[in-house]
């Protein structure tokens, strides 16, 4: 195994799925045909594909990038991408978590998210393509007409066609109310879409025969703001009623952006010039429909944090086990120590590893609720699970992507000067992971969504229920000191601060919006860290069922995370409560 290679951590992934609730998901009637062994086999096979086939394309993808051929008006992907993607399509990996009725594998999203993680670790830029396609599938499953589902879903499920998300315009980034792209009904009754969208991920490329663009646009006379937006399906190549490909549509890629990282993922300026589109859902119902796609994608983007952290950790760990520098405690000349024997390097490595573990646990837990929200036995169970999904999505997106970027930065630090040199490959982790806190709604916008919309929902019912769950775990603290002493103690402290700040914010939202907004990001961090600590404790508890060695390691990892991360989170109380006055100093 090369120093920068990727080996899928199947044992860690399975344990995370167990903590998230794999047994409970498999017990749902929808998955009666599925057993644990099949899940394990799928993970192992995909893990091999990710490690052996996909990961070797990652570096070349970064060096070559995806490039617009202006003459042919196509975007050429880096060497090896088409072949790898064709293999992914041929094996049917993209379809595993979708309904059998449209050609899917009928597996839970919890399995799908584990596959997404491995793909993202192996090649983040490439993985964005299936992320967008799968999010488009979620949208069409919920909002598409039966005709649209029958026509588009089977090929999107296989990955023969890809999907994109077209929201952003020069004047409409975080503020989608400013979208100006228009959708006008023509005399032939068809909708024509015109406008320019920017930053469109995989907006154009040579890996699939068709690209299905989901475009937010405004119809004539529509109200201002997001309420006036409608959603259109605009294929690159038009599809006839029998599913065959017809004429090219009037849309094209004007430019592929030069950017900091994910060079292989083409970030396109797309021009729609009276392109033929189909309305998806109701006119003016576009933002609601698009939220289905965005929420699915937000979990996938949050997942990029632990995916990068895992890959960077593996690299840094191998490097630190090999490079000799100085002498660790108790080592006398002429002996030298490898980096991993220095306490500070061990601290950095453990911080990377536990970030990957905790971020994974959080995203998988949100995904498990998504499965129950869809397939739960009764309406009450489903709506309760949906309450958790809605609450957890902004935290999973923002907290996990933030700690993933921090872990990539620590990876550079562990390699020292070599980490800063492109040839090492670690710099790519740092560059690639910087986008996750920005796209799919910046992390600042996630914090606002969490505090202003998700906390007060149903009079604070979901956040209070979630806090109660954490309090219950913290209450499991044994009366005598044991292997998880710090974990329970730090969790109890953090959750009591979380409880107090939550109640404070719930009151503040109505009284002083500005003060609540000023504390939103710190609150999200506190919630993420507390949930991370909670899940790490539950992981340590669950690991006892796996075996003594794994149990001991999981307990130590939980203790490390508690002291280094959860305990520090308690210090966030002050910025959450301090309000907006402290910000007035800025001129
Ligand atoms: C590589 C890449 C890929 C992308 N892929 C896609 C894609 O596939 N489809 C698509 O539609 N878009 C895509 N985007 C666009 C992306 O989603 C936006 O860049 C992002 O939502 C932020 O919008 P913006 O860049 O206009 O920043 P702005 O909205 O200008 O925000 C700038 C800063 O101000 C903050 N801010 C803005 N408004 C507020 C507010 N009300 N309150 C507090 N803070 C605020 C933000 O948090 C941010 O820190 C992509 C972008 C990049 C760079």
Provide an overview of this structure.
The model has no long low-confidence stretch (mean pLDDT 97). It is globular and about 80 Å long. By secondary structure, the chain is α+β, with helices and mostly antiparallel strands. It contains 20 helices and eleven strands. Strands 3, 4, 5, 6, 7, 10 and 11 form a seven-stranded mixed sheet that branches. A two-stranded antiparallel ribbon has the order 1-2. Bound molecules: flavin-adenine dinucleotide. Flavin-adenine dinucleotide binds at residues 165-168, 173-174, 199-201, 259, 267, 435, 438-442, 444-445, 448. Residues 165-168, 173-174, 199-201, 259, 267, 435, 438-442, 444-445, 448 line the site of flavin-adenine dinucleotide (FAD).
Features:
alpha+beta; 56% helix; seven-stranded mixed beta sheet; 587 residues; 12% strand; two-stranded antiparallel ribbon; 20 helices; binds flavin-adenine dinucleotide; globular
How do the helices and strands line up, and which of them pair or pack?
Blueprint lengths: L9 H11 L1 H5 L9 H19 L3 H7 L2 E3 L4 E3 L4 H11 L17 H14 L1 H20 L2 H13 L2 E6 L15 E4 L5 E11 L8 E9 L10 E7 L1 E3 L5 E4 L2 E6 L10 E14 L5 H37 L20 H33 L3 H37 L1 H4 L5 H8 L9 H12 L6 H14 L10 H27 L1 H6 L1 H24 L4 H22 L3 H5 L10
Parallel strand pairs: 3-6
Antiparallel strand pairs: 1-2, 4-5, 5-11, 6-7, 7-11, 8-9, 10-11
Helix pairs in contact: 1-10, 1-18, 3-6, 6-7, 6-9, 6-10, 7-8, 7-9, 9-10, 9-11, 9-13, 10-11, 10-18, 10-19, 11-13, 11-14, 11-18, 14-18, 15-16, 16-18, 16-19, 18-19
The structure holds flavin-adenine dinucleotide.
The site of flavin-adenine dinucleotide has 20 residues, from strand 3, strand 5 and helix 14.
């Amino acid at each position: 195994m090369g120093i920068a290679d990727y080996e899928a951590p199947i044992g860690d992934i399975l344990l995370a799925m167990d903590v998230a609730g794999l047994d409970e998901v498999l017990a749902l009637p929808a998955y009666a045909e599925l057993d644990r062994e099949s899940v394990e086999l799928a993970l192992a096979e995909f893990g091999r594909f990710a490690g052996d086939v996909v990961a070797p394309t990652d570096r070349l993808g970064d060096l070559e990038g995806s490039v617009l051929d202006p003459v042919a008006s196509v975007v050429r992907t880096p060497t090896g991408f088409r072949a790898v993607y064709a293999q992914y399509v041929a094996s049917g990996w993209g379809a595993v978590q979708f309904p059998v009725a449209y050609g899917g594998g009928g597996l839970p999203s919890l399995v799908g998210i584990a596959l997404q993680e491995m793909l993202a670790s192996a090649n983040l830029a490439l993985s964005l393509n299936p992320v967008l396609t799968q999010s488009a599938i979620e949208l069409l499953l919920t909002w598409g007409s039966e005709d649209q589902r029958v026509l588009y879903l089977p090929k999107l499920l296989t990955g023969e066609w890809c999907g994109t998300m077209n929201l952003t315009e020069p004047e409409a980034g975080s503020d989608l109310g400013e979208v100006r792209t228009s959708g006008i009904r023509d005399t032939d009754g068809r909708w024509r879409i015109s406008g320019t969208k920017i930053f469109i991920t995989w907006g154009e490329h040579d890996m699939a025969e068709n690209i299905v663009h989901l475009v937010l646009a405004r119809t004539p006379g529509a109200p201002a703001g997001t309420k006036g937006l409608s959603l259109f399906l605009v294929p690159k190549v038009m599809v006839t009623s029998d599913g065959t490909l017809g004429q090219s549509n009037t849309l094209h890629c004007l430019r592929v952006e030069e950017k900091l990282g994910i060079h292989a993922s083409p970030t396109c300026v797309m021009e729609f010039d009276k392109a033929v589109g189909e309305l998806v859902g109701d006119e003016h119902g576009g933002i609601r429909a698009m939220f289905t796609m965005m929420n699915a994608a937000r979990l996938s983007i949050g997942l990029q944090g632990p995916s990068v952290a895992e890959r960077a950790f593996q690299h840094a760990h191998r490097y630190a086990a090999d490079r000799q520098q100085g002498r660790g405690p108790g080592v006398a000349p002429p002996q030298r120590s490898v980096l991993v024997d220095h306490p500070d390097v061990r601290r950095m490595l453990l911080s990377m590893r536990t970030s990957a573990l905790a971020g994974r646990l959080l995203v998988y837990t949100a995904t498990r609720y998504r499965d129950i929200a869809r397939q739960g036995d009764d309406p009450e169970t489903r709506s309760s699970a949906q309450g958790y999904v809605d609450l957890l999505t902004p935290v999973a997106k923002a907290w996990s992507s933030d700690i993933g970027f921090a872990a990539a930065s620590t990876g550079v630090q562990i390699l020292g000067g070599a980490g800063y040199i492109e040839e090492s490959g670690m710099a790519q982790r740092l560059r690639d992971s910087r986008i996750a806190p920005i796209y799919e709604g910046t992390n600042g916008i996630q914090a606002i969504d969490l505090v202003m919309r998700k906390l007060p929902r149903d009079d604070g019912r979901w956040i209070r229920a979630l806090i109660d769950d954490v309090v219950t775990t913290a209450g499991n603290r044994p009366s005598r000191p044991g292997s998880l002493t710090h974990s329970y103690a730090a969790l109890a402290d953090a959750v009591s601060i979380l409880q107090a700040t939550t109640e404070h914010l719930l009151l503040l939202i109505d009284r002083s919006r500005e003060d609540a907004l000023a504390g939103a990001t710190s609150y999200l961090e506190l919630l993420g860290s507390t949930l991370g600590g909670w899940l790490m404790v539950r992981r340590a508890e669950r690991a006892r069922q796996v075996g003594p060695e794994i149990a001991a390691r999981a307990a130590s990892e939980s203790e490390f995370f508690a002291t280094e991360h959860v305990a520090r989170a308690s210090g966030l109380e002050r910025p959450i409560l301090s309000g907006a006055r402290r910000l007035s100093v800025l001129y």
